[in-house]
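User: Please predict structures.

Assistant: First:
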Amino acid sequence: MTRPVIGITAYAEPASWAVWRDVPAVLVPEAYVRAVTAAGGRAVVLPPDDRDPDVLDVLDGLLLAGGADVDPARYGQLPAPRTESRPVRDAGELTLVTAALGTDLPVLGVCRGMQLLAVATGGALHQHLPDVVGHDGHRPAPGVYGDHPARFVPGSLAGRVMAGVDRVNSYHHQALADPGRLTVTGWSDDGVVEAVEDPDRPFLLGVQWHPENEPDPRAITALVRAAAAHTRPTSRPHPPAVPPPPHRHPTSI
């Protein structure tokens, strides 16, 4: 049986490895790939690309990974002092999300990915959560995950996926202020939105925590299962190809 193909949106960040330091790179934490593979899926990394959403034609599911803040201009605000956005990544992911929302493609948004789903459907964010809840528990220290209680609406997609779970991890300094057209179905103990979904779609779920770093990454497992049941539509006509930029010889590194 062919494994369902799960596209994972990638970070575009300076990275260091071997003798190379701060080289522009496209990457995802391996935990996402491991979780997709363990659930029976085939992970494919998607670099930021806003030329078209055609890659969706060959995917069975889309995973919007975590990362830097969504550009506040996308929801009509100026950036706050602690906001660090990646407009190029926003453009590429929103191209995919906008197209995916017009189909039944299973979609899971993780942390930033959940926030992007809300923004794509008309929502907005709190740009610095400690200013709202009065504590740093959702991001205790650089590189340190928080841990807190969570509750989910019984019978909702989040409630079914997370049945029996009452705590989740946490690493974020922004949160949903307005879910847009999505339905909120999960909260932390201090009222922060932890899950959103679209009950009119077979599988569209956003989670504020990081399931890829949980011992039981059940939200990712649920995405892969939904993707396995998904039937790809006949490929839509593609627009004319955009000519590539003039060739330039790369600089050796």
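Second:
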Amino acid sequence: MDLSNTIWRKSSKSNGNQGACVEVADNLPGTILVRDTKDRDGGTLAFTPEAWQAFVDLAKQH
């Protein structure tokens, strides 16, 4: 997968906890990427748009 055009954004819920948040890239076709802001090289999770939406919907309930 070519990640050269990946655009990362921080969570809108990020509150300045010394980077204790996640970044999301949702500009790639068919894939949502998520990584830890504190450890950007530590690994990236990949989700289908449907799986990511299900996660977001569930997180909004809590």
